[in-house]
Amino acid sequence: MSSETGDQQRILHSRTRQLLSDGPEHTNRRTGPTGRIGSLLVATLTLAGCGSLTTPKPKDPEALAEYNEANDKFEPMNRKMYNLSMTVDKYTLKPVAKAYVWAVPRPVRSSLANMAQTMNEPVVFFNDVGAGKPRRAGDAFVRWCINMTAGVGGLIDVAKYAGYPHHDNDAGLTLATWGVPSGPYLFLPMMGPSSVRDGIGYGIDTGLMPLNYVPRGYGLLTFNWAYNIVNTINSRADRIDDLDNLEKDALDPYATIRSAYQQQRKALADSIKNDHRATVPDWYN
């Protein structure tokens, strides 16, 4: 591989990791609670009934090392799920996202992304507590309080300017800090890259999301569904060019996404484990 080609691949890999990073202004792999649990259930049932879609463990030492590094026991099935998701996206969500970009100004889209991020702060808070990181939990709680009030329901990220930038956490990462292994890599239909551990984490996060407990009446249930739909479209709209470039430039988009996802999740888990800041905020010292 030439030096120029290698540099292009590294740049593409870096952009892919950014594409997969958590937060509404970045991916979101999150859809509504029904979609998340339904996709995980479909994938689990498919795995149970498709033993022939697993990749046999190679005997050659070099091939075995690559097999273990990829951690993709179900690669044949995962590639089918990837191709299915990309096809469905091409004819459904992508056209809607393009129309959304055309119709909705960028500042409005950014405000909606901020709101989605703020609505997810309770999930981050509970997972910070679960990971035994009180300082991070305190930051998440303060972010939610500031943005829900001064930030007009989260539409403006005032907390960032007050010295409380957003940080990522979810149940999959919390389980990782507990030492729970990731299990095989999975590509969940219409949800994207995941793992057995992160798939379980999706279900836990659904239980931690306050919006999923809104009562009927007063339009709150309608707001919940509208929030999930708009968040999905908004997140996809932010990634139109990135996904197009990935499909065009990567030699194997599926493998590029898989590698970037696994490295990114490991980096996030390590950053949580290694966050040993005192619980008192910096401005108090």
Top keywords for this entry?
285 residues, mainly alpha, two-stranded antiparallel sheet, 14 helices, 65% helix, 3% strand
Order of SSEs:
HHHHHHHHHHEEHHHH
Report Rg.
Answer: 20 Å
How many distinct beta strands?
2
Q: How large is the share of residues in beta strands?
A: under 5%
The helix fraction, in percent, is 55-70%
Low-confidence stretches: 22-37
User: What's the story with the biggest beta sheet?
Assistant: 2 strands, antiparallel
How many helices? The count is: 14
Overall pLDDT level? 84
- End-to-end C-alpha gap: 52 Å
Biggest sheet strand order reads: 1-2
Task: Classify the secondary structure makeup into a structural class.
Answer: mainly alpha
Taken from the alpha-carbon principal axes, the silhouette is globular
Overall description:
Strands 1-2 form a two-stranded antiparallel ribbon. With 285 residues, the chain is mainly alpha-helical. It is built from 14 helices and two strands; from the N terminus they run ααααααααααββαααα.
What is the structure about, briefly put?
By secondary structure, the protein is an all-alpha fold.
List the helices and strands and how they pair.
Blueprint lengths: L2 H18 L12 H17 L11 H10 L4 H17 L1 H11 L2 H14 L1 H10 L3 H16 L8 H4 L9 H7 L7 E4 L3 E4 H13 L11 H18 L2 H10 L3 H21 L12
Antiparallel strand pairs: 1-2
